[in-house]
TrEMBL record:
PPR repeats lie at residues 111-145, 188-222, 223-257, 258-290. This is Pentatricopeptide repeat-containing protein. It comes from the Eukaryota. PROSITE patterns: PPR (PS51375). The lineage of its organism: Eukaryota, Viridiplantae, Streptophyta, Embryophyta, Tracheophyta. Pfam families: PPR_1, PPR_2. Keywords: Repeat. Gene3D superfamilies: Tetratricopeptide repeat domain. It comes from Hibiscus sabdariffa (roselle). InterPro entries: PPR_rpt (IPR002885), TPR-like_helical_dom_sf (IPR011990). Belongs to the PPR family. P subfamily.
Amino acid sequence: MGKLLSSLILPSLSIGRRNLSSSSSSSVNPFATHIKTLSKKSMPVSGKGKKYDTFHNVDDALNLFDKMIGMYPKPSIVEFTKLLAAVVRMRHYDIVVSTCSRMELLGVFHDVYSLNILINGFCQLGQVDFGYSVLGKMLKLGVEPNVVTLSTLINGLCRQSKISEAIGSSDKAVRFLRMMEGRGFEPNIVAYSTVIDCLCKHGLIKEALDLFSEVKVKGIKPNTVTYNCLIHGMCTSGQQKEATRLLNEMVDKNISLDIFTFNILLDALCKEGMIFEAVDMVDTMRKQGI
């Protein structure tokens, strides 16, 4: 790691600053972008001037839902989806699930966006199997899943917290990725990065590197998040040489190091007792405005 610090990290800081990437956590979570997109399209309902992103609590959202259900004709599924997105932002996933059920009972037909929100609700509640049931329902109804649908399910599998099922969850995530490919879907880098992160966190480093190589062979460009997942896995498993190789690869390909990359490296330096090097890195990060 000493060579890593002197020959790579400090010179690369100015490179990384030019294209400083966004948050790793939001990039790994495909649903965050989905919700942000919906919120940008927020509109008042029936000219009342009430916007979905101005709710103070979930009761406001439920009151508006009751008003929408009583309208004739009912608002489109787009308006109901924006309302659901607002409830998601308040993290009331159980209410998301129950509201989706009420919509269906009251004759409001779902589309891929509202069903994605329902799948995410189940996954956030730790009920991934129900999320897969929604996918099955989508296919029966002829609603075409999109990359958000599939990435959300993969993310749900990888988030399962039962230690005894950890390896099994990784295996399910990989198999589901293969199923996506087999059905003609083209997973994006978010889906692949999610699975790579899952494999690394469960100690399946070789499998993660194999999948990473496969991604590059397919012509899909890894991003900062992909590399962060792998570098963290390498540092955790004591494979500093491999971490160094990946960092050099990032610099060679002009892929930016972000705050999460530096946090991983700082943690590795501190664990190796390289405190002065860690302090130097922090000082340099401050000078770069990171």
